[in-house]
């Protein structure tokens, strides 16, 4: 089973930026879609962005124009660049690859 490790979360003021990373073990990373999801306290988990093995991307309406998903298959790593952060972006962010999920990284945006 693939293991995923997220990093890059933290506390940032509204309008600031963070870049999340997700590093995968194993050799299947390059062949699979990678997804970033988030879950805020008391809310359901929601999908934020996806990127295919070929680099096609898709975003939730709430983050379009502010977040950018990318991947480096040579490093088995996917990224989520988050700009113009808002307090409503506060959540635990999870990386997903196939049936595997990371443990999440906390993002807190202060107003």
Topology of this protein?
Elements: E1 4-7, E2 10-13, E3 18-24, E4 34-39, E5 46-51, E6 57-59, E7 67-72, E8 77-82, E9 91-97, E10 100-101, E11 105-110
Parallel strand pairs: 2-11
Antiparallel strand pairs: 1-3, 3-8, 4-5, 4-9, 5-6, 7-8, 9-10, 9-11
Attribute tags:
globular, mainly beta, 111 residues, 0% helix
Task: Give an account of the 3D structure.
The protein is mostly beta strands. The strands form two sheets. Strands 2, 4, 5, 6, 9, 10 and 11 form a seven-stranded mixed β-sheet that branches. It has a four-stranded antiparallel β-sheet with strand order 1-3-8-7, with no helix packed on it. The radius of gyration is 13 Å and the shape is globular. The chain is built from no helices and eleven strands.
Distance between the termini: 39 Å
User: What kind of sheet is the major sheet?
Assistant: 7 strands, mixed
- The tally of beta strands, per DSSP, is 11
Provide the helix percentage: under 10%
**Can you write the helix and strand succession as a string?**
EEEEEEEEEEE
Taking pLDDT < 50 over at least 5 consecutive residues as the criterion, the unreliable ranges are none
Q: Using only CA atoms, what is the Rg?
A: 13 Å
> How much β-strand is present in the residues?
over 45%
Principal-axis shape: globular
* Arithmetic mean of pLDDT: 96
Structural class: mainly beta
**What's the helix count?**
0
């Amino acid at each position: 089973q693939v293991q995923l490790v997220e990093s890059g979360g933290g506390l940032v003021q509204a309008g600031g930026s963070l870049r999340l990373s997700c590093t995968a073990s194993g050799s299947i990373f390059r062949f699979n879609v990678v997804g970033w999801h988030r879950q805020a306290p008391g809310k359901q988990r929601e999908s934020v962005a996806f990127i295919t093995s070929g680099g096609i991307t898709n975003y939730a309406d709430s983050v379009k124009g502010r977040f950018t998903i990318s991947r480096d298959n040579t490093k088995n790593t996917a990224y989520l660049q988050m700009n113009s952060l808002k307090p409503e972006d506060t959540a635990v962010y999870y990386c997903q690859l196939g049936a595997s999920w990371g443990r999440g990284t906390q993002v807190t945006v202060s107003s």
